Here is the input.
Amino acid sequence: MIEEQSARSAGEQSQATDPLDRIFYPRSIAVLGVTATAGTVPNDIFLNILTSSYQGVLYPVAPGKRSIGAVRAYRYVSDVEGDVDLAVIVFPASVVDKALEQCGRKGVSGAIIISAGFREVGPEGVRREQRLKDICKEYGIALIGPNCLGVINTDPKVLLNASFARKMPARGRIAFLSQSGALCTAVLDYARGKQIGFSKFVSFGNKAGVTEIELLDYLHRDPQTDVILLYLEELRDGRALIEAARRITRGERAKPILAIKSGRTPQGAYAAASHTGSLASEDAVCDAVFREAGIVRVASIEELFNTGILLAYQPMPRGDRLAIVTNAGGPGVMATDAAVSVGLKMAQFAPETTVQLKASLPAAANIKNPVDVIGDARADRYLCALQAVLGDGGVDQVLVILTPQSMTDIEEIARAICRIHHQTAKPIACSFMGASDVMVGVDVLQAAHIPHYILPEWACRAMADVQRIRRWREAAGDCVTEFPADKAAVEAVMRDAGEGYLQEDEALAVLEAYGLPVPRHKLCRSADEAAQFARSIGFPIALRVVSPDIIHKYDVKGVALNLTSAHAVHEAYAEMMRHIGRVMPDAHLVGVMTRAMIPAGHEVILGAKRDAVFGPVLMFGLGGLFVEILKDVTFALAPMGPVTADRMIREVKAYRLLEGARGMAAADLASIRECLCRLSQLVTDLDRIMELDINPLIVGPAGRGSGVADVRIRLGPSL
Amino acid sequence: MDKDEIHQRVVKVVCDVLNVDPGMVEMESNFIFDLGAESTQSVQLVAAFEEEFGIEMDNESALGVQTVGGAVDFIAQCVK
Here is the structure.
């Protein structure tokens, strides 16, 4: 029997200064709950560590067993003579707390709990998981899991496969973090098939201890990792994730984060109503805030790796200009369509490039972009074309397309691409189209880490994702502006307000306190008072009934617009009271909001919602059909500044209307931007606001400002 | 049948099924954490107790018993 699986100490080299190094670079590991039965998770985990050439010392803790896999077994972790850096716990859930507590007493400071049967199974599991958290807090244990696949670190200093994945993946520059354990095994198998390697691979399960945010920060520090891929099912602290992502994706040691956030809200969640609460579904908000944090959200595992390999194995392009070299016209045109549709630009070749292409390609070849080297092209012709386009200063990246024709020397062409790849600082992606004959070339490309895509469209999509990252890195950061606000006026409203909607006069007072453009107004309690106020501010005038019992004012004829005389105001007031008295005799009528009409202009909607995961979120869109039918709205996290506000305004599909399409005057965009920034400050300051809708804000021509035509504010309970 | 007898017979069954020394088996011993019972062995233990004591136990309740002492009490209730 082998006394212990002993090897040189991994941690000695890693200088375990990082708190999470105890998990990723342990000098010694105890696996608690190992069984002797082959083919079970507890047995496989132990054998996986043992056979992955782990560079530290391994201790199986298996009560009642003398040895596991010819390694001396211990009854308890406390029986292990030496120090233990990391405990991998595979006991059934009912006794995991006992094992973890024993680890704590032994001084073990890192743990991975593979076992399931915690928060995911209901109230009893929640209690069990809380017990684990308490133990970790008491003993200062960094915990991954429970309910996870485990951790893999391919760094030769440690070579750790503390997981029940079948095989140790190849070493690479991509880190993968996943909340789903089962997905991990599929991803590992997929990656192996495509010769993709990993730096770290972490399944974090229920994240009772170490969260995805701490793991992201760790991978940001990790010199072995260039690209981070993340699979998330549930977000608990959206704000913290966004802050971490902003740190990681920009700056000196920027690393891209690509993420799948599953659980996309079904279409049904997009209710017909046109207010922020229904438009700002979790998924829509998630899309917006991920983008603001520099996280590229992708829809599938395929896209995750399509983009991941481009980022990991190719240099960042300097721009978005693409050259395509193909031996088939059709796919070249399709790829061009795909490239343009995802926002890439087709490069315009310099005259000398064209001369070079003309000299080296047959007369029938297309020497413009996409370059068609035609069907009988062999490796030498591809090489000439690639040398020419890569040497052009107006080309930022190249896509090579190959279709397998009878004279196509596929493997040689792949090797030629590998050679030229070493001589250029520009990214190259390939699409050898097919699934059988082309594989001989695909293998060559993948072994050389040249990204290969079955379809050119996938390559274009991946290149477009890379462009998003490039633009994010180059974009200026935003700076939040602090406006003066009349906090006393807001406090006066909030003090007595209960849960639910504010009255219109109260809502307007809140907006006014934050400098939003509220027209002159007064809550009048008689027709005489309304007529007198109207005379004092001038005409035209709008009247709107104020009642806690009336939400939809138009339905009860509670709105009168464009009143051009004191007499008209008086009459409209009296008629409004008579009608509502008939149709809603029990409604409590507070009075009638009498206010100046806002001149006609572009109608936009500004909204805010307190999202359970991300906190205050702002929404912007054009009013009317654009919001009701087309859901043409954008989102951003508050607080935010003018750069983000500008992005929101430009992002709606109807933006061109605001710019002044078809003879219409351009809207006062500066005014919208300022309103969004003021609203951002308002909802950041006032955490009782659950939902706010300014619908519409009527925006005048450039330089003429805007006005709030209607507002609704819903408050949460007072604290 | 008194509890001492039940205890002795429980220890014997536990040692046979889990292949552990009698010295390891105490009243507080947890079948999984202290004696290394695997999931299939837990089911075998219930069957062996039923055979040893000529009783029928509710499987779900029986599998919820975690310690040797708990098993003694559970069986004592069944043989009454």
